[in-house]
Design brief:
By secondary structure, the chain is α/β, with parallel strands linked by helices. The chain has helices at about 15-25, 35-45, 55-65, 95-105, 125-135, 145, 165-170, 180-190, 205-235, 240-245, 270-275, 285-315, 340-350, 370, 380-385, 395-400, and strands spanning about 5-10, 30, 65-70, 80, 115, 155, 175-180, 200-205, 320-325, 355-360, 375, 390, 410-415. It has 16 helices and 13 strands. The strands form two sheets. The protein has an eight-stranded mixed beta sheet with strand order 3-2-1-4-5-6-7-8, with helices on both faces. The protein has a five-stranded parallel beta sheet with strand order 11-10-9-12-13, with helices on both faces. The structure holds ligand SAJ.
Length: about 425
């Protein structure tokens, strides 16, 4: 099983680091992306996302000729698909990017090639992908037709890397390998073992698909527990962070941290894939999503209550008031705004239209379009000196570095317990 050329479709938060990891092992890697700007950036040795240590690996791989990007698939020995799988209305998964990526590579497939789906997908997607390919290439034999003797090997191998620590976790984490046949799994293991230090754990494609959804649903349910506790504690006059710290001293209790909600393209999305396929059975998973999704609105109600206190206790008029939102990204020390509850809270505040809304976000240089007309990006120093109300939304390192004692504002809504 020699993989001379490896193709990676989708050069985003997962595809780009994965392509770079193969290229760093001196494999010829072709990255495919529909976005010409992304392709051009990468071919100049730069990256379009923020991820520690990634740019250096990409730059070296491009300079040494192991990695190039293009918009059209070309022949390769292994094809990885790492395109987005968002959801549409009613939280139904949108598989159109997976389908488009699959159909685009179909014409360049040849006997002996390996196709791996990495995108988070509902159970059964890998079998569906195999059907799409079989329909497009009747000249080739696929696993669902001939089992072990197929011309094309197909597997589902989900990524499980944590944004912000991708270059470490990509190499170190164990990898679930769900081949359509044992031969497919063996090929996929051989491919990942080019850079993997963790173990390849082999299963079938459907279990691997469910495993990915399960991991993120587990985390979502556990964060929902923390978020529900934070609502209850606010009502009971209890410091939720103190409570969790104490409860976690029990040897079998490990409660996660509350926040403004749950964001990112994974945990806020993937559990819905289980709910969409199992609407009657997935009660806890659905409720966890609802608890986490409703948290930004609860935060807004807290902000409104504090602002009412502020107006009652100061000489300010509502129009003179300044509310500073600290953080917009979906978690600390990244630039990713996808499904960000912090962004949602800031938008709700800005559209509430009381006084001025300021935003402090050290990882973003311009406000997203939907906020630009309603809010203003300011420095942390400026917000700390001038704002009337502070809303802590993301525990960025710059915010944690501020000593809470130096914060003079009386009206603070701290969703992350940073300045307790
Ligand atoms: N969050 C909390 N409280 C916590 C932990 C997280 O409110 O105690 C929030 C974060 O602020 C963020 C959201 O949850 O808004 C998700 O952040 P995260 O750090 O839990 O996860 P992601 O989305 O960055 O990455 C997850 C990881 N999955 C698990 O930990 C089970 C990662 O391993 C997956 O590879 C990734 O999803 C993915 O791509 O699916």
């Amino acid at each position: 099983m020699i993989f001379e050329t490896i193709s990676v479709t989708g050069l985003g938060y997962i595809g780009l680091p994965t392509a770079a990891a193969f290229a760093s092992r001196k494999k010829s890697v072709i990255g495919i992306d529909i976005n010409q700007q992304v392709v051009d950036t990468i071919n100049r040795g730069h990256i379009h996302i923020v991820e520690p240590d990634l740019e250096q690996v990409v730059q070296t791989a491009v300079e040494q000729g192991y990695f190039r990007a293009t918009t059209q698939p070309v022949a390769a020995d292994a094809f990885l698909i790492a395109v987005p799988t968002p959801f549409m209305d009613e939280h139904v998964p949108d598989m159109s990017f997976v389908r488009a990526a699959t159909m685009a590579l179909a014409p360049v497939l040849k006997k002996g090639d390996l196709v791996i789906l990495e995108s988070t997908s509902p159970v059964g997607t890998t079998e569906q992908l195999a059907e799409w390919l079989a329909a497009a290439r009747p000249d080739l034999r696929f696993p669902q037709q001939v089992g072990e003797h197929s011309d094309i090997y197909i597997a589902y191998c989900p990524e499980r890397v944590l944004p912000g620590n991708v270059m470490v976790e990509l190499i170190k984490n164990d990898r679930v390998i769900g081949g359509m046949t044992p031969a497919c799994s063996a090929r996929a293991c051989a491919l990942y073992n080019l850079f993997l230090e963790g173990e390849c754990v082999v299963t079938d494609a459907r279990t691997a698909e469910m495993c990915k959804l399960t991991e993120n649903s587990f985390r979502d349910v556990n964060i929902a527990f923390a978020n529900e506790l934070s609502l209850i504690c606010a009502e009971q006059g209890i410091d939720v962070w103190e409570l969790i710290r104490l409860a976690n001293r029990h040897p079998r209790v490990n409660i996660l941290q509350p926040g403004p909600g749950v964001g990112g393209h994974c945990i806020a999305v993937d559990p819905w894939f289980i709910v969409a396929q199992n609407p009657i059975l997935a009660r806890l998973i659905r409720t966890a999503r609802e608890v986490n999704d409703s948290k930004p609105h609860w935060v807004l109600r807290q902000v409104k209550a504090r602002v009412a206190d502020c107006l009652a206790e100061s000489n300010l008029r509502a129009s003179e008031l300044t509310i500073a939102c600290l953080g917009l990204t979906f978690k600390p020390d990244i630039d990713d705004l996808r499904e960000s509850p912090a962004l949602e809270v800031a938008q709700l505040i800005a559209h509430w239209n009381v006084g001025a809304t300021w935003v402090v976000e050290p990882n973003v240089h311009t406000l997203p379009r939907e906020m630009a007309a309603k809010a203003q990006l300011v420095s942390l120093e400026h917000a700390l000196q001038q704002a009337d109300v502070l809303v802590m939304l993301v525990d960025h390192k710059q915010f944690k570095a501020v000593n809470g004692v130096q914060v003079t504002q009386r009206w603070i809504i701290d969703t992350k317990g940073v300045w307790r």
